[in-house]
Amino acid sequence: MTDTAPRPTLEAVAARAGVSRATVSRVVNGSDGVRERLAERVRRAVEELGYVPNQAARSLVTKRHDAVAVVVAEPETRVFADPFFARQLRGISKELTAHDNQLVLLLTEDRDDHARVGRYLAGGHVDGALVFSLHIDDPLPELIQRAGLPTVYGGRPDGSGGRRGAVYVDSDNRGGARDAVRHLLGLGRSRVAHITGALDQTAAVDRLDGFRDVMADADPRLVVEGDFTPAGGERAMRRLLDRCPDLDAVFAGNDLMAAGALRVLREHGRRVPDDVAVVGFDDMLPIAEQTEPPLTTVRQDIEEMGRLMARLLLRDLDGTTASDGNAGGTPSAVIFPTTLIRRASA
Amino acid sequence: MTDTAPRPTLEAVAARAGVSRATVSRVVNGSDGVRERLAERVRRAVEELGYVPNQAARSLVTKRHDAVAVVVAEPETRVFADPFFARQLRGISKELTAHDNQLVLLLTEDRDDHARVGRYLAGGHVDGALVFSLHIDDPLPELIQRAGLPTVYGGRPDGSGGRRGAVYVDSDNRGGARDAVRHLLGLGRSRVAHITGALDQTAAVDRLDGFRDVMADADPRLVVEGDFTPAGGERAMRRLLDRCPDLDAVFAGNDLMAAGALRVLREHGRRVPDDVAVVGFDDMLPIAEQTEPPLTTVRQDIEEMGRLMARLLLRDLDGTTASDGNAGGTPSAVIFPTTLIRRASA
DNA sequence: GCCACGGGCGAGAGCGCTCTCGGATCACGT
DNA sequence: ACGTGATCCGAGAGCGCTCTCGCCCGTGGC
């Protein structure tokens, strides 16, 4: 009960099958050049002994770990209030396990964590990394780049650090924002306000840019900075109502803030969408469906983005192993389209 | 750029410091018995070379991986619609990294995945496992037990498989349910209905039991099975209104279903809480705060539960390494208390 | 001044695997 | 019958580390 039964080794299997270690290895790893008769005998021995290869020993020689790190750098709030993260993880997980890779999750909160994560990634425990939710000026990309670890970013990383070559997957935040605002305009609204996300994240900046693309000459007081939380949405909405009581539409940087805004609007007796139309971003379920009224919002295919990130990384990994590096057609960025989901709020 | 610089080995550090591998190993692993002068020289060499130990080589001999698996067995729905999962992960992650352990995430959806996960766990890649969201009759515990891997379950596992010894952490679902129902009764309600969760999960069963503890002689038509989703909550609510139009309170098995129920009630012109009081379970944010009206619900300390799971597992791991196994005072179950959060819905 | 003792250090084996290389074996052509 | 490849398999080295031994040197007791 207490002792773990000593696991059988290649040697043991070899002995039982009456062959050499090398042959067993060949069979186990599916390389050809073993006569069927022998292979069969080996397979039986494996079966009987319940042999499972020791991964540590294997990667000691192959220098491959068949594992990739997923790094989520998020100081609490956003990721954990929302299924976004979970969805993307799921996409990644699917893709990874389909290629027999393991997923090592690294959650970070503060700066100390970053150092730790940097060390871990540099330590060669994993073959590559998938990195999320970077804030502008995050030191992590720098560390990773120095470690020389193949990496794909989720969301456009901040361009400041000369990380021009970085591969990333993002949704078309700017285009989605434009669609949202145009939709509002199409509804006949003219005083369209925008509650931005935390502007130290590129997604928030890009959405703001999209807003400005369409509302180039808007009253600057119609833009208020939020922080992606419901409470932030409420604060921002109050401020907007205060400064521009005549607004007739709000585009919120995400659904959480939109939900907060909705509450404040109700509180102030503004009817949605009659008096003020509201559009969110993310189509974060179940929130977007459960607000009163249900939220018109911009959807992105989160899970697929996750899958793609994983796929790009794996491709890079194989490429590196195979021959000349990653020049072989790996795109440096993939932008996913967004779609406007019409519900009742706008 | 393409080639990963060959990482320095113990040997290299030893050469540079003019000592033997053994000494470097001693210094790196913090064991004493090395004179300060030498230790210092070694440390400098490590620094200069940027040496990081090769984990694979190390675990090959130590048989320790300093990694634990987190297994989430969930066919889509629940876990991913809710931050529950993320919170718990965060708790686990904190505790694990505090003890220099890595978190290997295994997400499973279907039966094939289970086999794969079973193989992985049996493969000795990790030192232990944290397992979540089991459904009744899940084959996983059986597989894990056979693999002899130290394991802690999140949520009471189904008792059927003779897994009496299983260590688990759960919240007091039954007690929480009792509190919720008593609260409703305290409000003067008498026709209290219950929308259960998916009854193939022990949490749903326990909450139902709690409901019955208080409502022993209730009209059986007041209990309807749901599935933990908003849509399921809506369906169940419709059915309840149909069968028992005179109900004056609803206790939903979780907040998502409560949100669905709220919508149906509104649709039918029932005012909450005036006509019908509603209580949920989980205090799933931001949903619970964003419903109309905000939801009275039963809160559990998710993150702390995660931490504790990790702590129990690590303790077990150390115990096993140390001497005689886990008899040294590890509890076989820890039940967390719940607290009723009063908002506007009841 | 000699021996016993103990602490600090190095030599070397070995963890379980992969992979190269060369030896056996066999079919075939001459 | 013999050489010639091609094919299949085994021997053995070596991946980077830990850990046991035993050597060496310094210290103390007589």
Automatic annotation (TrEMBL), chains A, B:
Keywords: DNA-binding, Transcription, Transcription regulation
Signal peptide: none
CDD domains (UniProt xref): HTH_LacI (cd01392), PBP1_LacI_sugar_binding-like (cd06267)
Molecular function in Gene Ontology: DNA binding
InterPro entries, A to Z: HTH_LacI, LacI/GalR-like_sensor, Lambda_DNA-bd_dom_sf, Peripla_BP_I
Domain of life, source organism: Bacteria
Positions of the HTH lacI-type domain: 8-62
SUPFAM superfamilies to which the protein is assigned, alphabetical: lambda repressor-like DNA-binding domains, Periplasmic binding protein-like I
Pfam families in UniProt: LacI, Peripla_BP_3
PANTHER family: HTH-TYPE TRANSCRIPTIONAL REGULATOR GALS, LACI-RELATED TRANSCRIPTIONAL REPRESSOR
This protein's name: LacI family DNA-binding transcriptional regulator
